[in-house]
Every structure is written in C-alpha cells, then in structure tokens.
C-alpha cells in the first residue's frame, strides 16, 4: 500500500489546529520540514515550536505567524541542531529510522535546551 497525505514523502509534518471550540476542532494547515525524519516530542514555548526529529535532529520553528496565517505557510525554521550528521548525504538529507534525537527540554529560563540522543548522550544548546 502506497503512503498518502502530506507526510508520504517522509518529511515530518506539523499539523495546525484551531481548538477554540473543543467540540468542533478544525485543522487549518500544516508545516512540512525540509529534512526527512520521524517527527515526535514537539513542545511549544512562546512563539517557538521545538521538535525532535530523530535523525533530522532538533528543529526550532517560529510559529508567531499562525494567529494571522493558520495555514502554516508562514511558519519558518529558525534553528537546527543536527545530532546524526552521517545521514546528511542521503537524498532529502535524512533517514527515516529511530536514530539521533530522542527528546529535548526547551523550558529553562536561561534559554538553554537539553537534547537527549540515542547514540551520543546529552547535548546542551542555546538558540542564537
């Protein structure tokens, strides 16, 4: 069976929902990542979404445009930390396997982000 939908090509998808009515939530759009991977563990902190995308690493998206443009077309990646660079030469810049970034924690007042990985332990990074 062939894959279908926005994620069929293997690029992580962030779906955008309007939940102003919990009885009638509406999907308004989505953002598609530029590097292949498996998306998971997304956290929102202020105007930013922090995502662990396994082999794709930690991605930080500016989501401040969503209230005015809920389609997701104005969402922009503003930072990226590659945990698994050995897959960078592949088509699409990544692999769809459980390697690399496991999770992260973006809520320290200092702005530091702790990134936990499967193969390489823990990194501490900061968006600049």
TrEMBL record:
Name of the featured protein: Uncharacterized protein
Domain of life according to the entry: Eukaryota
